[in-house]
Amino acid sequence: MFIHVANPIYDSVFKYIMEDERIAKTMLSALLKKEVVHVTVRPHEYSNTTRDTLSMFRIDFAATVREREGDVEKDRVVLIELQKTWLNTETLRFRQYLGAQYSNKSNIREEDEKGFAYPMVAVYLLGHRVGNINEPIVYVNHDVFDYNGNIVKEGSEEPFVESLTHNSIIVQIPLLHGNVNNRLEKVLSVFDQTQVEGNTQQVLKIDEDKYADDNDMLYVLHKLTAAAANSEMRQDMNVEDEYYKAIEDRDTAIMQRDKILKEQEEQLSQQNEQLSQQSEQLSQQSEQLSQQSEQLSQQSEQLSQQSEQLSQQSEQLSQQSEQLSQQSEQLSQQSEQLRNMAKALFASGMTEEQISAMTGIDAENVAKLLN
């Protein structure tokens, strides 16, 4: 027969059933794979009374666990730090909470004069998957090793060791798909979200006949059925839905904003790349202009030098011309003097031949001087 029960993934419903000692013993016995003979809820703060940006429901137990050592049964107290979340949560939040428990003086054994703490087990009920781990439930247990990597069998439960280390149990609720292969999977099957009934997640449709041979599980279902019929409980679930709807809306807005920012960053990156290329081109052009300017400067200097050389040559030619002019004038004066002398000698009765012999000028030129 199918029945409708409240979904224990809701914080209010989970708190409601886990504060029932019988259900807490059933759940913790299955998780620890040991008989829990007594359990008490320790003082804690519920995240549904102090909402923050991420859901983190916490509840702490002191469980008396019965263990068998040979033929002897022995009871010891174990602290259970149970944390449940719907959403992907930063591991730092889990670590901060565990750190607070390690430093909590109330977790020290009262009967122990050396101040050793109770052994602790951290249980994580996650509404999301953890990486590529495909098992719905995984156990992370510490061992004690020697230098060569061999397990030290004696002393692993020494108070000093247990005070500084803890084991962990991780449950991935999305991987609970109705497969029941052991006691724990049977207990956790009431968290299977594939059994959600209706348009909301508040109600699960469960086949009660599968638990007909298990009084503890029938008791759990009875408690969940009562929660589903409780108007205050339904109101609390409505509040949680509104809260998570607000978170989803916020996350959607953040995703859209991040998408826009990413597109803008890509555009800015492209623009920066273009500006960088343009800057590089301008730098190259500036370098080319600088080289051309340097070449023009060198050519101008060469032209200046050539102009100076031409000026010097022109001055030299002017001086040579002046010298030639002076020499020409001197020759003209000398020629005039010779003509006058030749005419004077000829007028004195000397013949051309005598004048030529006396002056050393050939007779033909003497004749020219006398004409």
Give an account of the 3D structure:
The chain is of the alpha/beta class and 371 residues long. It has helices at residues 11-18, 21-32, 91-102, 159-164, 183-188, 215-229, 231-347, 352-359, 363-370, and strands at 2-6, 35-41, 57-69, 72-85, 120-126, 137-140, 167-172, 203-207. The strands form 2 sheets. The protein has a 6-stranded mixed beta sheet, sandwiched between helices. Strands 1-8 form a two-stranded antiparallel sheet. The model is unreliable at 45-54 (pLDDT under 50).
- Describe the strand arrangement of the main beta sheet, using strand numbers: 2-3-4-5-7-6
The whole-number mean of residue pLDDT values reads 81
Q: How does the overall form come out from the CA principal axes? A: rod-shaped
Structural class: alpha/beta
Number of helices: 9
Q: Which percent bin holds the helix content?
A: 40-55%
What is the rounded distance between the termini?
A: 166 Å
Biggest sheet statistics: 6 strands, mixed
List the helices and strands and how they pair.
Blueprint: E1 2-6, H1 11-18, H2 21-32, E2 35-41, E3 57-69, E4 72-85, H3 91-102, E5 120-126, E6 137-140, H4 159-164, E7 167-172, H5 183-188, E8 203-207, H6 215-229, H7 231-347, H8 352-359, H9 363-370
Parallel strand pairs: 4-5, 5-7
Antiparallel strand pairs: 1-8, 2-3, 3-4, 6-7
Provide key terms for this protein.
rod-shaped, 371 residues, six-stranded mixed β-sheet, 9 helices, two-stranded antiparallel ribbon, alpha/beta
